[in-house]
Amino acid sequence: MYSPFLIGGLGLVLLVLLILVLRHVSASDAHMLHAALGNAKPYRDSDAGLLERIFDPADLTFIAAENSPSLLRLIADERRDLVLSWLSEIKRESSAILRYHRRSVRYLSDLRPGVEFRLALHAFGFYISCLFAAALVRCYGAFETRALIRQILHVCDWLTRLHSEMRADVLAEHLPGLVRANSI
Amino acid sequence: MTSGTVSLGAETSNQQAVDDLELRTLSGIATLLGRLVYTASTRDYNTGAYYHDGLTLRFGPGAAQAALLSCHWSLFRALLLMPLSGLVEELSAYFNSAGADQLQLIISWQQFTAYRMLLPADCDHLSAGLFMSNMKLGLAVLHMRLLKSAESSGPAAALQIGSAAGSAGRSRGAR
Where in chain B are the domains? Predict the structure, then answer.
């Protein structure tokens, strides 16, 4: 039903998209994006470790050694559901960051449409990547698509850093008193 | 007295309470899962607050609460990050130590998802999902092993186990 070429093609498109997103991100972008006063984070620090546990091939080997097709089906279903739920959660949290950004840029005097456009492009790339990853996980399962999920995690890591920098920028610009109070 | 000194004093007291809980109570429980079950059982499910008379008497309610919460989290994390093979061993050892029929225990854990009560408060979505998923898988592995061992030991035992599993399945379906 699904040819290896289709899988390879989808994977390639996703990788190219991710590389484009990552290449377009620069420190100056982060510095220019004055936004995000909220506490939303696209993923918590422990997510990387938990995802490693979810994709741990030792679990699959252990279940395979039980010689039970129903157990193999169960682990595949459970891991797939976990990854899909995680993907939808990081999408939701990333949307929250962008909402904060949209709210805060309304008050900026030096708004730069170019930077805003780039951010919109990155966000679009991120959502498309999540959708691709979710589609692949649905079709082929979590264990087969773990390399792609790791790529998504890199994008999430970038979003988290960007969010922290944006938050620091806004605090420094609009609430210098609060920054001083926090640093004491 | 500065707030820093107060906070340091509270931290020391909390740490002493944690050490006391580990030394006097938790070390007497053989398995990590057993310790987690014990710690979770000290929580009032209406309020989410932990209660332990001995700890409260010695360290005060605040330190006792903090110590139980801290131990609950560390035990939960240890089991969460454990490979599935280790979790199955933990489950098996825990059910063995419970002194009841293993199959009945497994079935009731599967039926009532009793392990949901083991999640600490404020547990994030991914950790909770992974823990629940691993427990479900661990129980399924143990159930399957029991069925296989019953099949190999004779048709009567297999029939007995099959009927017990069937009645649990019907009960799940009815709910």
Answer: 1-81, 83-175
